[in-house]
Task: structure prediction
Amino acid sequence: MKRKAERYFEREFDVIVVGGGMAGLCAAISAARHGAHTALVHARPVLGGNASSEIRIHISGADQSLRKPQYAESGLVYELMLENKARNDFFSYSIWDAVLFEAVKKEPKLETFLNTVMYDCETEDSRIVSISCVQETTEMRMKLRAPLFVDATGNGTLGYYAGADFRTGSESKYEFGEPHAPEKPNNHRMGNTILIKARDMGRPVKFTPPSFAKPLTEEQLKYRMHCAKHKIDPSMAPDPEEWLRLSGTSCRGVDYGYWWLELMGDGDDIIPDYEKIRDDLMAYAYGLWDHIKNHGDHGAENYALEWVGALPGMRESRRFMGDYILTECDMLGHRIFDDAVTYGGWCVDLHAPRGLLDFDLLPSECYHFSGVYTIPYRSYYSRNIKNLFMAGRNISTTRLALASTRIIGCCATGGQAVGIAAALCTKYGCDPRELAPHVGEVQQLMLKADGFIPGFKNTDPADKARSATFTASSYVAGGEPQKVVDGISRRLDDDSHAWISDRISPDGEYLIMKFPKPETISELHLTFDSNFNYPIRITMAYNRQIQQRIGVPPELVRDYTVMFERDGRVVKKVEVKDNHQRKNILKFEPVECDSAKIHITATNGADKITVFEVRAY
Result:
């Protein structure tokens, strides 16, 4: 029987992002917001990658699970989490999926292709010319062209097809002098994991394992916390708190887990082993639950297995080589690069070489350090494919550096920076390497979009608020109004970097911005406090859920009015109600004014007002 004509189309974009995990999602939204006609190609039906409902890893970052709260990631990833927090106090992953889907759909310069697999690319003169894709749900084949591409696939599939230089496995300690690297290079890699979720049903529940389940014994699990009644042997764990962290338990012990249910495969390359690893993970997941339910008293009599992930989350595969390879030494030395575009702070987190099958090892060795490090722009583009950016866990690092930069929060902020850089390459008509003279613009746009780069502050010459004088109705010592233009939009150590009122009076409090001469303003940026000491991420883990507060952060300003004045007369008024975001951008028809009064009448519950930054354009 003759086949009907193939469904096919060709399209052109300014930027094409392949991979819709948090890195690719942030890259695509960021590129579109900064003016580039962008395509996001994603093989799955939902966005978020490892953070999506399909895999359900919660977003961790530089704050190291509240060890260093002042370094929590802000910017686009935080905006998305705040949006979710405003709608989703019950940790529904379906709502989280909807928040991410809405975020891409409301960007006019962004087109998203879900269920769309990139299976080939065309290259010419060390450049990617086009990618070939198929949308499985519609049987539509497509060829997408662009002058710029972002590989956010995790595995680096696009870069691999294009011939980009990459590494796998670990460097020796003698190549870069990394203190925790092995004596000789090896092919160790962190493995893949599926998570499981159980629920207390309030009555005894039986469990019958499937025939493919692989049994596990208490001896094999002795270094992996897996029950509510597990006793810590001080001889095995001199630091019980660290044992609890490394063993991956939740407060309830059996309701959520287990990140250490991890396998690397038996071959030299973890990618072609993916399906075999998935099958083995599924077998061990059910075998583990069978052990918890049916072999010994694990405090799980009333628990029923509610969800088992079917799509393993991957930690490590290819790392593409850029013009700079980030190393563990850079991290431990808290290096501030001149071309830094984001930062990281997660520990150097190395998992047991064989994962679950290393029964006599702790599942992870985590080398902690104080503070944070920056990541240079040169680590986000390929050194040999001229028009290829990387975003996510495939950026240019050693394996030891990857052990920290692979964390989702770090991947997301890096993706945001890459999106900005890609948009600027479109603006200047240049390749990623050629954007180097404009890296200062990338940095300033990242800060303007509520990103954070340690060692850098707002120096934007277009920001007219920087020349203004600020007064306020009240303030506390250390929270003077002029701090809203000191260039840093978060509390760091003992400096608030914010105006902090000493009260909220019945009529509200106000902050007045007075320009030295009349200015024409069409955009006002306000950054409010959301208190990084409390997490807001979507999570299945009970012990992470109970750290969170009900509703949006009470410190956030809720209701306010901005009145622009000229010669004492109000020439423009903008009113905001029910705000739940940290970063507010008000856009309006241009108005000439000599001052602006920001009158705040309510927070979301706090008894003081905190404003970190005011910008005017």
Summary: The chain has twelve helices and 27 strands.
